[in-house]
Specification:
Helices cover 13% and strands 63% of the residues. With 119 residues, the chain is mainly beta.
């Protein structure tokens, strides 16, 4: 699924009122880091945000409701899956870090970039 399709799907989860004010971002995570090593990847993620609510759409796993908050000059998106707790932090220049803490004690991180979606 392309990032454009993911943005459309994630925006569909927000109400009509939220959608009118939604800020949408397309991200691509290119580095995966875990106890097994560091790997090059190409993982698209789309984020639709309206106020402190957001939807994170991960190309390989699904769509998740998230809490959004400003943290200094960056934005944080916190969400959970059935197997993990996750945070994506996006800096003011578009740099992005994604931390995944699995319920079994493992963790994984990604590094990439996010930009505002073009309509």
């Amino acid at each position: 699924m392309t990032p454009i399709h993911i943005v459309a799907l994630s925006a569909a989860l927000l109400s009509a009122t939220q959608l009118a004010a939604a800020e949408q971002r397309n991200c691509v995570f290119e580095r995966q880091m875990s106890s097994e090593g560091t790997f090059n990847v190409n993982l698209p993620v789309a984020i639709a945000r309206a106020g402190n609510r957001a939807t994170v759409a991960v190309a390989t796993s699904g769509q998740y409701p998230a809490k959004a908050r400003s943290a200094g000059s960056s934005l944080e998106f916190r969400f959970s899956t059935p197997v993990s707790s996750e945070v994506i932090a996006v800096g003011s220049a578009g740099e992005a870090i994604w931390q995944i803490d699995f319920k079994d004690g493992r963790s994984m991180g990604y590094a990439g970039r996010c930009g505002k979606a073009r309509g």
